[in-house]
Amino acid sequence: MTPDPTSLAPPPSWAAPAAEARARLLEAIRFDLRGLVPAIAQQHDSGEVLMLAWMNRDAVEETLATGRACYFSRSRNRLWRKGETSGQAQRLVDLRVDCDGDTLLLLVDQTGVACHTGRRNCFFVALRDGAVTEIAQPTTDPEALYGR
Predict the structure, then answer these.
(1) Which residues form the Phosphoribosyl-AMP cyclohydrolase domain (predicted)?
(2) With contact defined as beta carbons under 8 Å apart, do 113 and 106 qualify?
């Protein structure tokens, strides 16, 4: 059976759902023992997979309320608003929960690069001719993004 293409299409623009709808969505998410869930960010119009990050309940709530991707930084143990230091933000187009409730898919409109290395996405290492190879070069200098 072929899926109805309109059911796969993201909404035309983000509008924060009502509190009751946000609560129902949060109930559908199975956070792990640390209170986290993996979140895949995908460019909404091209399908390009940009990155994988983690979200806790607060990050999901903020993302739904603001329409701007917010994640949980495990290394800093705090919320991380994508683009807060680099300007490379993600505008939420749609947020989906997988069949098991244990993974999120954020369809986003990425401003600039998604990866802290200055590449468009974080998936730039692959096997080529038996060697581990970087298949994409940085398009932006990370020092210019983060001042490091």
Answers:
(1) 51-124
(2) no
